[in-house]
Amino acid sequence: MKIQGKQYHTIWVKNGNSAVIQVIDQRKLPFKFEIFDLITVEDTYFAIREMVVRGAPLIGVTAAYGMYLALLNFDGNGFEKYIIEKADYLKSSRPTAVNLAFAVDEMLDFILNKKLNTDLIEKTLEKAYGLKEKEIYFGNKIGEFGLNIIEQIYEQKKESVNILTHCNAGWLACIDWGTATAPIYKAHKKGIPLHVWVDETRPRNQGARLTAFELGEEGVPHTVIADNTGGHLMQHGKVDLVIVGSDRTTITGDVANKIGTYLKALAANDNNIPFYVALPSTTIDWEIENGLKEIPIETRDTKEVSEIEGWNGSEMVSVKLIPEKSKVANYGFDVTPARLVAGLITERGICTADKKSILELFPEKNI
Amino acid sequence: MKIQGKQYHTIWVKNGNSAVIQVIDQRKLPFKFEIFDLITVEDTYFAIREMVVRGAPLIGVTAAYGMYLALLNFDGNGFEKYIIEKADYLKSSRPTAVNLAFAVDEMLDFILNKKLNTDLIEKTLEKAYGLKEKEIYFGNKIGEFGLNIIEQIYEQKKESVNILTHCNAGWLACIDWGTATAPIYKAHKKGIPLHVWVDETRPRNQGARLTAFELGEEGVPHTVIADNTGGHLMQHGKVDLVIVGSDRTTITGDVANKIGTYLKALAANDNNIPFYVALPSTTIDWEIENGLKEIPIETRDTKEVSEIEGWNGSEMVSVKLIPEKSKVANYGFDVTPARLVAGLITERGICTADKKSILELFPEKNI
């Protein structure tokens, strides 16, 4: 998608130098746009750990390229021990991100028991590129299927379609298109008039900083709101559709997503507004049935709540928001029960949020 | 209630100089505690408009003292026209606050058709003090009635009672005790173990800054959370009771309160958690029946969303949170329909949120 009018992915091989992987540095967005170079596996660990890159799909692809960089920079003996260590090291950068581990393991499986030579290095780079392509494919297909929902609303309403989204399930969290944003970009490119309500998404403000930024750069009309606002808008007919992403989805259709998603699902339900979740099937956990009981919820650094990062005109600074004496809790995600979800938009099509419908789209998973 | 161990009200006549009304400057709390002087009606307008003081009851009392200051500073001809103009001027400082208008009109009725002399000025000051006393009485009674609810939960649970509150319906919004916090302070003083989840309350962070501050100064255990978090806590049995305040209540029990209240009411409802609203009857608008249709919702400066104020270690500073290109919307309140409200805690007792029950407590209003 576009930044300052130029087409970007979130990660790519440096033009003219395949020993360097480049990513968009998301830490200072939307206030400063910078490119960050990954040359070593340590750079890759740093980029994931410090959230230079974030978003489950992008983290996975970045780690895959990290395995390529590990290979490229190997210099010595004991290659197998070395590469297994580097895989573990990369996996430890964000311990809860499930598809980070999947991506690294897929790369490791590919590399192990092969002879280290320029051919393997080249093929490993191709393999990482394959994971990247798969993510782009997912976003593209989710976008096409989700577009139908927006089109239908537009055909009925004949006026600009108002879509609410929470957090950043956008292309900055992926490679291109995004998940929740993919149908929005497809509809916008097709000329369907629409407007997006962007939840700020405290505590890390991914909505206010990243979703607003990427929609703005693509020219999609949007308005940033405090997380408290969605219910009021829905009560007053100002939201036609909610689309969010998913960090983990049960086989029964429960959705773990950024904290606060459940509250918007309740409000959508209370006002008869369709609440859709856009997700690649890689976020479906085929082994669990009860999201509320079985999905562990990550608690994060309380500083994300007690302080906030913003732009003072020349740099990013943190300011304090609460009294020194007060305790703080910071839960990263919540679980929206399937009963509140109108449908799941996947790369294979749209289904209702229940086991039967999900397995109809993914029959090979019915074990 | 206490600040740094010393007993305070939010507003008082300056010791030794009755031409000066003093208020706690709430703009720099919790980081800096300062007193703000009101000498003119323009100071009063400024204090209300710029939220030196905030909270419906305190705004009303402040405006009442403002009418006294208007009287005190009159110098010229056309007193009646002057005082009516000042009344309108004060009322325009915060359009949604219904008891601001009530307080000003009550003062105006008292002043009009009287002879302007030192006796009237003295009696007007007494009248304003009467409104202040009434608010303290309201908080005290609401606290006593609400205490019963907390006590009952404690008797059943035999463990610390977890209460969630949104925004600041605390003593800083009133004169003393507060509304939503009054039952909490009463229970705490009685030795009932409890813990309060404090919603940050974006965009102005009255929860993180004011409720957390006042609970901390009174020694009440509490934890600040992002507004997105309450639903998750309720799903996991971590909330026993929700108590919020009200800016305006319909005779049918619909409640207009700080934006985001509706979302918490939905989550409480979805998890069978009692959702109570603590309010003095002065916030009841006896003329309207449909909160969603009839209560106008104030939109406020978008900078409250696009920027945030915090403490950098030595002063309050504002930092930017969203891209320059993005639009922002800032709605101040939402309406929680009566069907989601377990009960109203008033100065006359607790009633269910419907016209019949409300009128049983306030039979004199049945016109």
Helix/strand/pairing category of chain A: alpha/beta
Quaternary class: homodimer
CATH fold-level topology of the largest domain in chain A? Rossmann fold
Q: In CATH, what is the class of the largest domain in chain A?
A: Alpha Beta
Largest interface: A-B, 67 and 67 residues
Q: Would you tell me the overall average pLDDT of chain A?
A: 96
Q: CATH superfamily name of the largest domain in chain A?
A: Translation initiation factor eif-2b, domain 2
Radius of gyration of chain A: 21 Å
**What is the spatial order of strands in the main beta sheet of chain A?**
8-7-6-9-12-18-19
Distance between the termini of chain A: 38 Å
> Helical content of chain A, roughly?
25-40%
Strand count, sense and barrel status of the largest sheet of chain A are: 7 strands, mixed
Low-pLDDT regions of chain A: none
| Count of domain modules of chain A | 2
Number of strands of chain A: 19
Number of helices of chain A: 12
Describe this structure in words.
The structure is a homodimer of 367-residue chains. Chain A has helices spanning 41-49, 56-72, 79-91, 98-111, 118-157, 182-189, 206-218, 230-235, 261-270, 291-294, 303-306, 355-361; strands at 2-3, 6-7, 11-13, 21-25, 34-38, 161-165, 194-199, 222-225, 241-244, 248-250, 255-258, 275-278, 284-285, 307-311, 316-320, 327-328, 333-336, 343-346, 349-351. Chain A has 367 residues and is α/β, with parallel strands linked by helices. In chain A, a hairpin with a 7-residue loop joins strand 3 (11-13) and strand 4. In chain A, helix 2 runs antiparallel to helix 3 and helix 2 (56-72) runs antiparallel to helix 5 (118-157). The longest helix of chain A has 40 residues, at 118-157. Chain A is globular and about 65 Å long. The mean pLDDT of chain A is 96. At the A-B interface, helix 7, strand 8, helix 8, helix 9 and strand 14 of A face helix 7, strand 8, helix 8, helix 9 and strand 14 of B.
